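Quick illustration, no need to memorize.
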Amino acid sequence: MQDKLWAQNQYAVLMILQALDAAGKDGTIKHVMSGVNPQGVDVHSFKGPSSEELDHDYLWRNFKALPSRGRIGIFNRSYYEEVLVVRVHPEFLASQQLPPALKDERIWRRRFEEINNFEKYLVDNGIIVVKIFLYVSKEAQKERFLERAMMPEKNWKFSAADMKERAFWDDYIDAYEDMFNHTSTEWAPWHIVPADHKWFTRLAVAAVLYNTMENLNLAYPTISEQQKQALLVAKKELENEDGGSKDKSVVKAKAKEAAYPEILDASEVTRDETKKRDRKKRQEEQVKPRWKAGLLATRGN
């Protein structure tokens, strides 16, 4: 799916991960994305805003980090912190240089609306927004904090600030619930994934990402007739080099062509060519068991 996303170069996928502390965002990114090409993935972790970022609107730093077409972008925390952390800690709002009239009780509703409009704009421009909340229970969070405090290799993960935020558990849950109710839209719904068992969390996030990309009907680009003719000329020249079709690279290329007929333009393949390819494929299938047995015997020796 990622390969087709890159080749087609029409869509981008933005995965937003939100969670309370110790829910496993970093581990989820590490494990889920281990099966893709790192050249096509961008990961951005958003912590407290810098002085430069505070001099801009709250979407500015996220807007700069959006993935380009063909790429998967991951936001480890995001602009949603502006309706979560800032809401739980109103003192942070004071440092955002907003005009006093805008710091009224309707600010959160306005931000929900702004975020929805922003995400609609992204989707309308081919940037698919996948929003995932990893829900870790208070008991599981306690166990993970204890691990960080007791295991030397995890001490570096422990932060006194995490314990301070744990005291605001109920306030965060209320803020998340209000956020879900106002920002889970048809074009960018929220996926709430249980995070007490890491294996399940990673499997569920991988499934959400895969199904999202599958629904885009991604496909390898088709080429023009002129490009096809140029390929045929190049193919002929390569086959005539150093031994012609006996060259190993030519044989390998033909084997790939037979193995992946779905990437060919079916309308350009005649019935005779189709029959020949099917017959060759059946012959290869008959040879495979003997080939594998020979390989195993060689390895045993």
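The first helix runs from residue 2 to 8.
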